[in-house]
Amino acid sequence: MAHVSAAERRPQLIKAAIDLMAREGVAAGSTRAIAAELGVAQATVHYTFGTKEELYRAVMEQLTQDLVAQVERAAPTEASFEDTIATLAEALWRTVLEQPASHQLLTELSMFALRTPHLQEALHGHQRDITAVTTKLISEACERTGHQLNQPAETIARFFLAGFDGLTMQHLSLPDEKAEEVCMRALISAVLAMA
Fold first, then answer.
1. Which CATH class for the 57-194 domain?
2. Which of these CATH numbers, 1.20.1530, 3.40.1000, 1.10.10, 3.30.980, describes 1-50?
């Protein structure tokens, strides 16, 4: 079998880790199990990432990048500020409905990172990145539409994300499509009122 460089192996291992842990949970994500998922030696995981925590960090980053890319693709280019915010919120919510395993894995990894000193900086980075992207999308919508904000864009972003995280957790633990729809509309209305 031909040698595969660490740079080539890295995305393969991240995908294998995501597939495995989305199916079976973070607790199942040992380096041995992830290696078996891809069909490589366990040493390959350690050679590529060094530690399991570094692999988990890469998984968090990949999940975040994937979700952000989906929302950014949904950003309208000619809608009003209100319609833009609603569209972005609905696009993000659609990722929860269509990819609940990804959101569950991200939530599990976040909780795991709270108790894992080596991963706490990855969790902080994840939260900073999500807040920064949400702030940027709000700011861009303001610039494009000429809307003046009543609060700083970051404050609005943090408010939205707090509500969104709560709705996501409710959906993952006790789904109720009608209630979620009402709550999402209320969250969007609250964000727009704040803005």
1. mainly alpha
2. 1.10.10
Q: Is the pLDDT of residue 1 over 80?
A: no
| 125: DSSP letter | H
Query: Is there a contact between 95 and 67 (Cβ–Cβ < 8 Å)?
Result: yes
Q: What is the pLDDT of residue 44?
A: 94
From the list 172, 176, 155, 163, the residue with the least C-alpha distance to 89 is: 163
Q: What is the H or E stretch that residue 17 is in?
A: helix 6-24
Exposure string of 139-158, with b = 16+ CB inside 10 Å and e = fewer, is bebbebeebeeeeebeebbb
**Is 0.85 surpassed by the pTM of this model?**
yes
